[in-house]
Amino acid sequence: MSMSIHRRRRTPESSARLITASGTKAPIVVATKGVTPRDMKEGSRLVPDPHAWQSIANARIYVGNIRDGLTQVDAAGASTYDTNAKTYLIKLDALEKEVKAAIAKIPVGRRKIITNHEAFGYFGDAYGMEFIAPEGLSTDSEPSASDVAKIITQIRTQKIPAVFLENVTDPRLMQRIAEESGAKIGGKLYSDALSEPSGPAGNYIALMRNNAREFEKVLIS
Hints:
By secondary structure, the protein is an alpha/beta fold. The chain contains seven helices and eight strands; from the N terminus they run βαβββααβαβαβαβα. The protein has two domains: 99 residues, Nitrogenase molybdenum iron protein domain (Rossmann fold); 115 residues, Nitrogenase molybdenum iron protein domain (Rossmann fold, 3-Layer(aba) Sandwich). The strands form three sheets. A four-stranded parallel β-sheet has the order 6-5-7-8, sandwiched between helices.
């Protein structure tokens, strides 16, 4: 049995080129079929946001599409695919209740953070959080003193209670941001890559649980 499953990339054209280059003759299943897309900023323009799995409701759509795609090419295994999908959907239902409960503990006015990730738009839309990009911060290098000053000013101006900045690796800079802004420093978030299997985000459910707990931990006053 051979089949290719992919999530939507930035453009349908890039997906088509990738599939053509692979030389595959397998049926193509678009895991995000049925997802309502949103846009994200990329430089000065808006592009389709590919991080749809950051909403658990969208993850359910992925499961259904994958189940249907596997059944299409392997009808004999349909009952197995259906059973496995139902089992996983139950786990996703429990996960969504857990995530919503974690966010509900956070006062509404504190449900916003600065992060250099651009992957949490679907999460914010689904669970009522605001993710704000740091002003003047390059993702390619350690920030300068002036960069840090801009972040501190941004935190104070927008009254942001927490920051998650993975590209700021110097603990002295993070300490300065915390001391001068009053914001809490968050731990590691996982957006579009898992940790090692034994780590805090070894699978999708663990990834979503880890992020929700990190938000809860630093944003509860």
